[in-house]
Amino acid sequence: SFSEENLKYFCLEQINDRIKLIAGDIQNPRAKFITTLNHKRKILHRAFQDFLKSDSFVFGMVGDAGVGKTCSMCSLALESVENNFSLFYNGTLLDESIIDTISKDLNLFFSMKNDREIVLNKLDEIGRYTNKNVIIFIDAVDENTSNNFSNELSEFVYSISKLKHIKLCISCKSTVWNRFLVKNETNNHTYQELIKYHPIIKEL
Fold it and tell me: Model-level pTM?
């Protein structure tokens, strides 16, 4: 019962609603993303397009504070709607689990109820039906206040790695990046999926 037109409309609504709290205009000094001032980073966008064509599931954007990770995440999310089914989340504001938050967003827009236990399978089914990627953007994972978020993210990555049409794009400050890759000297699922696409940067 899904139409591509409805999916695109839903994606644009969801992304704009989620970005709204960090976006603004030049008069707003707290805005992290200002559309009129945003400069598209062509090398990054090309790298992201290559990732979408690959068999990898996780794309990591890592850098120092203030280099433009959030702007780039917003830009990529808005651009990706043209050819993909995309969702955007701000790690700072994720108070519930990733899957629960996605379920709520879908249930607000579509008439049927998507239980958390099957939401990823539903998304994967949509990707298969439309022959598009389902891309979930989570900006600033390091700003989430949950002590268990790195483990939750790792398990989320493990779940999508078992599916075919869902991809994840995350951003993080370089100073704490290692916390999302390793626990008790053991590489987690996030690390294992990232190295399938990204070369290892020893400094990180």
Answer: 0.91
